Amino acid sequence: MAFIEVSCVSKTLTTNRGVRHVLNDVTLSVDQGEFVSIVGFMGCGKSTLLSIIAGLTLPDAGEVRLGGELVRGVRSKTAIVFQNYSLLPWLTALENVHLAVASALPTWTRERQATQARAYIGKVGLANAAHRRPSRLSGGMRQRVAIARALATEPDVLFLDDPFGALDALTRANLQQELAQLCSAEKRPVTTIMITNSVDEALLLSDRIVPMTHGKDALHSRSHVVESLTASVRRPRRPQLKPLRIGDVGLTAVRLRARGASAGQVPNRGGA
Ligand SMILES: Nc1ncnc2c1ncn2[C@@H]1O[C@H](COP(=O)(O)OP(=O)(O)OP(=O)(O)O)[C@@H](O)[C@H]1O
Ligand SMILES: [Mg+2]
Asked: Which residue's alpha carbon is at the smallest distance from atom 18 of ligand 1?
């Protein structure tokens, strides 16, 4: 059994325009330590699926198991990064991270918790802005705090809902590299599911890409996982500006190269 098992999950939501079958029989398996990206059309149900996997929303049918246990709420050792930062506005950047550390790692001493919070604020390059409240941070800085807050809790599972979607291209590229380094720098395996609208981003960061699409019945916006694509390049990676067509889904992305590989050499994952 895979570490995360999503089995036949369905979800129907009711709006003032009627009933929407958002998820229909979605099945997905994620191995421990795997980084899986979900890409798909706007409104096809990616966030709904992620919030069910994370235990924030209950499915109407089907089940999610994490480490063999049925998901019935947000599990400890799990961190979530939302698209809209979700920082507490009355706390500084450092206090936001510190609060998360204190709540996720309550057995640690106060001093160790404070050191951990400072270390992660530093890792995302915000040491000089640690004492600013979110209203005095740029969007990119807020998202850095959200990522620091998630990783500082030392999760073994990370859920990212389009974490860089609202950022400019340069900040986005920087944060992608930082996330890749922070994830791969951890000695423990961090199992990650990330939603993204960027195929390049998915290829850069993930072991496997899972496209989600609307079904034939567009009126009901049914969605399902159609297939998954395995990125064969070892992580961490860096992009090369060369167009590449991926599978049958008609998407174009940049060719990727593993760090340290010379041009033209694309080693398999787990290879040299
Ligand atoms: N609380 C809700 N009540 C009713 N309908 C909802 C609710 N949340 C989402 N929906 C609808 O369910 C569908 C799927 O929403 P969801 O947010 O999961 O899509 P998404 O794939 O994450 O979209 P995006 O790419 O824009 O983030 C959308 O049509 C949305 O309008
Ligand atoms: Mg969404």
From this structure: 45
